[in-house]
Amino acid sequence: MYPTYVRGLPDGSERGHFLALDLGGTNFRVLLITLKGIDVEMKNKIFPISQELMHGEGTLLFDYIAECLEMFQREYNLMQDTLSLGFTFSFPCKQEGLTKARLVKWTKGFTCPGVENEDVVRLLNEAIARRGSSINIQCTALLNDTVGCLMSCAFLDHNSMVGVILGTGTNACYMEHLDKVLTWDGDFDEPKRVEQSENVQHSDAISRKVIINTEWGAFGDNGELDFIRTDLDHVVDKASLNPGKQIFEKMISGMYMGELVRLVLVKCARDELLFSGETSQDLETQGRFYTKYVSKLKRDEESEGYTNTKQVLDELGVEKYTMDDCRHVQYICSTISSRAAYLASAGIATLLNRVNLPNVTVAVDGSLYRFHPHFHRRMMEKTKELLDNGIQVSDLLLTCPSCDLSPVVGCNEVHLLRYI
Ligand code: ADP
Predict the structure, then answer these.
(1) Can you give the residue ranges of every domain in the chain?
(2) Ligand 1 atom at minimum distance from 367 CA
(3) What's the CA-to-centroid distance between 96 and ligand 1, angstroms?
(4) Which of 64, 278, 321, 348 is surrounded by the most beta carbons within 10 Å?
């Protein structure tokens, strides 16, 4: 767990133009954000990250980021202003301040040499400087996506205290009392605010606190999860770019879920329990069963005839399958995705029990959570079950996927906030 040096949450009174960089998974995004009270205007551009950049020298990656920033500034005619930049860098970092963070270890498929143990803000600033005076940007904060998710939700929902990501990887952050953070080396003063908004219900809670980046994806790296890991979890881990690392993440996140399903399907076929004992070249190929297929198959449940399941099996070149096979494939997807949702819930309930406040909103983002049709529901059920007695389910404050960002105060259902 790492203190983030973020000591307060936004209260909706923030104003101005800001740049944001988002690097940490499939895409790299540059955003121009204009805050004007409750209104937020966002312009964003997505830039692809090639395999060459994911594995090439770190300087090449940072030069590419600086080049994209310059293109963005030109496109939106921002060259004359010096804009503050927030850099969302979603890899485990040991922060030494708001603008100093050393990468501990690459995850999620990145392996660029020359970045681990280095200050990534310095690498970004040096890449910006290499472009000369054509670019006018000052990085004022580095954070990871969980903190970004929590901050964005807190801007509108002042009870947000926990941020969770369920995408390519998984991670969470939460607000902790400074006196419980034994590694805290910053000051213990109150965070300074221009003005304190009256609608911050946890104003006491944001003082003398800091957001902790739990890096929960690495839970299990010391064997804590060995009692529930299956043989196939070990296969996924061994074949990954970081064996022995990110064990919790490998049981939950989008980068690994499809592969787990594929391995179960292959095992069942070889044991003659599926597809008349036959597999296909695609089904035998690592990474070929995409996590988005799990969502697609799960949508079949309501409809008749397993149309989506058949389509995916056809795409994978599986020739001999029956309706029973389709049902079993569905069941395998359900089991693996429910396990993922339940494990994430165990983490969320632990953080909620620790925060121990009524009316806490959990901010959740990531494509796995957004697009899997049952992930939200499974998480609701399990989180409720795992909360300490003192914390009433109805005490959690709420917005749900269908409510988008509007908080539903007083709703008796528990929903997790989905940030769009
Ligand atoms: P990031 O890479 O920043 O985490 P996302 O939150 O968009 O970005 O997560 C992307 C991951 O989500 C993909 O790697 C994939 O594993 C998973 N994913 C994408 N689409 C779906 C879907 N329809 N259903 C479930 N998971 C998905």
Answers:
(1) 2-157
(2) 6
(3) 30
(4) 348
* Closest Cα to atom 7 of ligand 1: 367
Give Rg (Cα) of the chain.
Answer: 22
Tell which wins on pLDDT, 305 or 344.
344
Per residue in 233-282, pLDDT (tens digit) is: 999 999 999 999 999 999 999 999 999 999 999 999 999 999 999 999 99
Nearest atom of ligand 1 to the alpha carbon of 108: 2
In the chain, what is the straight-line distance between the N-terminal and C-terminal CA atoms, in Å? 27
Residue of minimum CA distance from atom 3 in ligand 1: 25
- In single-letter form, the type of residue at position 247 comes to I
| Sheet containing strand 83-89, strands side by side | 39-48, 27-36, 15-23, 83-89, 137-143
Residue whose C-alpha is closest to residue 410's, from 392, 393, 398: 398
**Residue 180 three-state SS:** helix
Written as one letter, the residue type at 273 is: L
Which residues are designated catalytic? 108, 145
In short, whether 148's Cβ falls inside 6 Å of ligand 1 is: no
Amino acid at 29: R
Q: Which residues lie across from 174 on neighbouring strands?
A: 162, 212
Size of the chain, expressed as the number of residues it contains: 420
- How distant is the alpha carbon of residue 180 from its chain centre? 25
CATH code of domain 2-157: 3.30.420.40
Query: Residue 161's closest CA among 173, 143, 178?
Result: 173
Q: How many angstroms is it from 291 CA to the middle of ligand 1?
A: 8
Cβ-in-10-Å burial (0-12, 13-18, 19+) of 305 comes to: exposed
169 alpha carbon – ligand 1 mean position (Å) = 9
